[in-house]
UniProtKB/TrEMBL annotation:
GO terms for cellular component: mitochondrial inner membrane. This is Cytochrome c oxidase subunit 2. Belongs to the cytochrome c oxidase subunit 2 family. It comes from Friesea antarctica. Binds a copper A center. The chain crosses the membrane at residues 21-43, 63-85. GO terms for molecular function: copper ion binding; cytochrome-c oxidase activity. It is a multi-pass membrane protein. Component of the cytochrome c oxidase, the last enzyme in the mitochondrial electron transport chain which drives oxidative phosphorylation. The respiratory chain contains 3 multisubunit complexes succinate dehydrogenase (complex II, CII), ubiquinol-cytochrome c oxidoreductase (cytochrome b-c1 complex, complex III, CIII) and cytochrome c oxidase (complex IV, CIV), that cooperate to transfer electrons derived from NADH and succinate to molecular oxygen, creating an electrochemical gradient over the inner membrane that drives transmembrane transport and the ATP synthase. Component of the cytochrome c oxidase (complex IV, CIV), a multisubunit enzyme composed of a catalytic core of 3 subunits and several supernumerary subunits. The complex exists as a monomer or a dimer and forms supercomplexes (SCs) in the inner mitochondrial membrane with ubiquinol-cytochrome c oxidoreductase (cytochrome b-c1 complex, complex III, CIII). Its cofactor is Cu cation. The gene is COX2.
Length: 229
């Protein structure tokens, strides 16, 4: 999680987030060029005391500023459509996890393993807490996953609307009562990835964080063995 800047995206930890950042940079380049051209035209027009008669009822000019935005929208729309399909692409998952939102905590169930399920509550900071704990972001039970493994998450809610979100992975899915939403993702490196509920769900909406601990497959299997009951 990036803590040194609040203006940009967090460091990408999944292929989906990398694609989102590439599209953002592509879009910002186009927007900056448009802003510079329009600003130059406005300044040059307002500071020029001599009226340019060519610009009055100019058919070529009308044709130019009709066709040019069309091509600009194509350059923006084609990568956007490709990215939308990538975000909804369903891969063959290597494991499935059920995620349930509650007021106000998350519960996880590892469906491919016997009796591995737990609740995840926000950790309360105390004077004796560890110095490296993050306020409003740490939890008592982290969701542990192996990296470079395709994960399928089945997300729902037990009471009201929630939203399961990890910004550094580029994933966000609503948890709707009575409905299962599916999410596919993959982490590319080990680490801790933080998120929070992104749907206003009540008084303690700000106090139900999400933490994914991405580990090696061997450590994950050891963790599963120790947490099986």
């Amino acid at each position: 999680m990036s803590t040194y800047s609040s203006l940009g995206f967090q460091n990408a930890c999944s292929p989906l987030m990398e694609e989102l950042i590439f599209f953002h940079d592509h879009l910002m380049t186009i927007l900056i060029l448009i802003t510079m051209i329009i600003s130059y035209s406005m300044v040059s027009t307002t500071t020029n005391n001599i009226l340019n008669k060519i610009m009055l009822e100019s058919q070529p000019l009308e044709l130019f500023w009709t066709i040019t935005p069309t091509f600009i929208l194509i350059f923006i729309g084609m990568p956007s459509i490709r990215l939308l399909y990538l975000l909804d692409e369903v891969f063959n998952p290597m494991m499935t996890i059920k995620i349930m939102g509650h007021q106000w905590y998350w519960s996880y169930e590892y469906s491919d393993f016997l009796n591995v399920e737990f609740d995840s509550f926000m950790t309360q900071l105390t004077p004796s807490s560890e110095m490296n704990m993050l306020r409003l972001l740490d939890v008592d039970n982290r969701m542990t996953l192996p990296f470079n493994t395709q994960i399928r998450a089945l997300i729902s809610a037990a009471d009201v609307l929630h939203s399961w979100t990890i910004p550094s992975l580029g994933i966000k899915t609503d948890a709707v009562p009575g409905r299962l939403n599916q999410l596919n993702f993959l982490t590319t490196r080990p680490g801790l990835f933080y998120g929070q509920c992104s749907e206003i769900c009540g008084a303690n909406h700000s106090f139900m964080p999400i933490v994914i601990e991405s580990t090696s497959p061997s450590f994950f299997l050891t963790w599963i063995k120790n947490n099986s009951s």
